[in-house]
Amino acid sequence: MKTRFYATSAKLSKTTQPVKKKAKRPHLSKEARAAVNARCRQAAQNYRNDLGEAWKKIDEVTENLAATHHKVFVASNLSSKWAA
């Protein structure tokens, strides 16, 4: 079976929204790039440390709550990968 295409008088219309152009980022010097990377690494390290502390507190509160209510607490160590 063949498909037949017929010429029409319809014109191609422009797109309703323009194509979004990617913003150009400035080229950083070697020293500036090193400073930005160092700041990023420090922020990531701080985040990991804070997350580890939060998991430790959650574990402590869970254990205390179980002990207070005379329940058995089985540690699943979900937070072991976050502990710093």
Summarize the SSE layout with pairings.
Blueprint: H1 30-68
- Give the % helix: 40-55%
DSSP, total strands: 0
In angstroms, what separates the terminal alpha carbons?
Answer: 67 Å
Q: How many separate helices? A: 1
Class from helix and strand fractions? mainly alpha
Beta-strand content estimate: under 5%
The overall pLDDT, averaged over residues, is 82
Which blocks of ≥5 consecutive residues have pLDDT under 50? none
Oligomer: single chain
What is the chain-wise order of helices and strands? H
Q: How much is the radius of gyration in Å?
A: 29 Å
Largest sheet: none
User: What form results from the Cα inertia axes?
Assistant: elongated
Structure description:
The structure is a single chain. The chain is mainly alpha-helical. Helix content is 46%, strand content 0%. It has one helix at residues 30-68. The longest helix has 39 residues, at 30-68. The protein is elongated and about 80 Å long. The model has no long low-confidence stretch (mean pLDDT 82).
